[in-house]
Amino acid sequence: MIYDRADQAIRELNRLNLKAFNRLKLAKWDELNVVRDVNSVYDLSARQAVRRYYEIAVEAFIIAMIEANQSNAYATRRADQIIDNDWVMDLLEMADPVTMYMFFPEMDRKKQRLLEAMTASDDRNREIDRALKYWTVQVAQYADNMVYRARLEAFRQAGIDKVMWVTQKDNRVCTDCDDLDGQIFPIDQVPPPQHIHCRCYIKPVIEQK
What we know:
This protein is mainly alpha-helical. The chain contains seven helices and three strands. Helix 1 runs antiparallel to helix 2 and helix 2 packs antiparallel against helix 3 (72-82). It starts with a helix and ends with a strand.
């Protein structure tokens, strides 16, 4: 499946993040320690996510190139040339088409929100659990975005002019995605994902010569 690698990476990150946020519950409470510990948890999680995003993007790029009738050797070579840490970071610095926020500014906002909540709340553990939930959504959203963007880049590199929108064709397909299913778009005019955790994908339209 198109999103299998992303889903696997997110499961791994969720386990790591759960442990890290749970450690916040055990931290000694004082303002300086909390600021340090909250920053450490988010910053470490972001570094772990960036590493996984690179792996996700490379695999998605190679799979898409092969779908576009490129050899595995060529696809792997092009992935090595195009998908690197800078490519991932550039994507993280763009506004996500669904949430409309950029990865790191939004991470900083979530850190500050948690710090304020822990200071004001009489139930800090509840605030930590809530912060973990919101952070998990953000990390997963960018994993999906890596798949979408890497596939789009691969098709461009393979000289594909048109792509088709494909849904998962299950009972969870939303109305907006269902309306797009099977539609063909010029590669520079394909719509972005329609919602958080969108499972739709694009595939190349290869014209017979």
